[in-house]
Amino acid sequence: MSLQIEHLSFAYREHRVLKDISxxxxxxEFLSVLGPNGVGKSTLxxxxxxxxxxxxxxxxxxGENLASxxxxxxxxxxxxxxxxxSPPFSYTVLDSVLMGTTRQLSAFxxxxxxxxxxxMEALERVGAAHxxxxxxxxxxxGEQQLTLVARAIAQQAEIxxxxxxxxALDYGNQLRILQLVRDLSREGYAVxxxxxxxxxxxxxxxxILALMDGRVAAEGKPEEIMTAELIQKLYGVDVDFMHTQNGxxxxxxxxxxx
Length: 258
Fold this sequence. Notes:
single chain; 4-stranded antiparallel beta sheet; 6-stranded mixed beta sheet; 258 residues
């Protein structure tokens, strides 16, 4: 088991955000986390990444407790791909990707030829090698997200954690990034990703974890759990499903309620 969450609960003082969350993630899986705003998706990810302590339950990788690992040890297991952000300093794309190789170096050591090759191979994998000498801050949103995915690949961790990574992208770049990440999962990466769009989760995921009121509302394969009843429970809207040759399509029922 690449990642195992068991009976995870977390509270900000008196406000309980996560309530007895349990699920697992295997290599080669693309697991999407769905739920309305404020349901605890980001808190869940922050617990997994070691950015929050004080939770109860356990978070393990291959039977080892993540909470007991050093940051360097954690980076061997998990790579984080964030939402787009503006870096405080100007870096080239290659330098940005090289940051994913820092765990291989001693403190203050400069990247060597092996790390540079590793970074370039990661850029080639995402189709962005031609951007290597460009200023990261001057890239388009889609190009920046490709760079962040390349950085995660260069890190050589087996688990990719992505917290709403396409929220700032246009529709085309959203689909291109999600297709790339799905391809990575099919190559053996374990992907854990939070999404706003249930159609994207249905299209790209091998499994879906739906959260509501801090608890697991449903978990399983998209074709098994994605129902009109679940969408109404999560988002308070009515939908129908259309069956096409490319899979099921979610259609909102506009004006069904007063």
